[in-house]
Amino acid sequence: MKITFPTFIIASVLCVVTSCKEETKPEVKTESEMAVTEVVTSNALSAWADAPKKRIEDWVTAVTTEGAADFIPVADRIAVFDNDGTLWPEQPVPNQVQFMFDYLKKEMPNHPEWQKDALLSGVAKGDFEPLKKAGMKGLMSIIDKTHTAQTEDEFQASVKTWIDTTMSKKYNKPYDEVVYLPMLQLLDYLKAHDFKNFIVSGGGADFMRAFAEEAYDIPPYQVIGSYGETKYEVMDGKPTITKVSGDIYVDDKAGKPQAIHRFIGKKPVFCGGNSDGDQAMMQYTSSSKYKSMCVILHHTDGEREFEYDTKTLSGHLETALVEAKEKNWLVVDMKNDFKTIFDFE
What we know:
Elements: H1 31-43, H2 50-64, E1 78-81, H3 95-107, H4 112-115, H5 118-124, H6 129-147, E2 150-151, H7 152-165, H8 181-192, E3 196-204, H9 205-209, H10 212-216, E4 223-235, E5 238-249, H11 255-263, E6 270-273, H12 279-286, E7 293-298, H13 319-327, E8 330-333, H14 334-337
Parallel strand pairs: 1-3, 1-6, 3-4, 6-7, 7-8
Antiparallel strand pairs: 2-5, 4-5
Helix pairs in contact: 3-5, 3-6, 5-6
């Protein structure tokens, strides 16, 4: 797969902040309000086991307490999270791959040319042998057929319809409901302490932007992922972006810190991931001048979720696990460290 580095136009925005002439007194919380805050904070990570919960809370307290040695200014509180296998499951295949397979099956009657293609028609019928033989070239062909020649609005609508109408085979729930409750709590907990959460994932940026705000409370402009070529034109008087065939930037492994640099412009101080594909992003986070924290989800629960690490094509975890021990990254044993994995348990 060819990786390209498109040229970006950097827009400079001048923000003029005017201060009030009249002095404003700082807000002072009442004792009852402080008590409520303490209760909310103490219950924020209720789906976590005590040990990882305490470690996360201790770190957050250390870096958000003004005047403390490890204090991180609000402007630098950047948290990055992988998506597949970190915020929602990636087995038996990543959800975006399942979306592609379902799209082929649904659209096959509308494309006679696809029906003549052994690879495309095979996948639509559930026969994946042609895809296995074709390898990456075959997968790229499927990506091209299911992601391009659509406007951004058309593609967003396609993903949202799939999300709203398709059920996870394992859980019989819509895919955007099959998300990890402890990680949702962690996102909320960090946000409550003035962290800005970003998704930095190998999944397609446009795919994730269709549901990330509703599922994770992360707006589209804080979603970074793999992306392909687009074309701008005015169609029937309407400015339009269309997804077209071309090179793909893969936001995985070394591509993740490169994308963070390109689209965020600051090193993260918190990183959540689950595989060797997230290792470079964790290394980059660990190099922050601030006291940082990295969390790796180890998929150890074959009953409530899936059990895998090295023997998998998606979510391979090996070298990152070794470095986690060397650098004292928090490794979360999902079987033991997640009291509840899904909200619907």
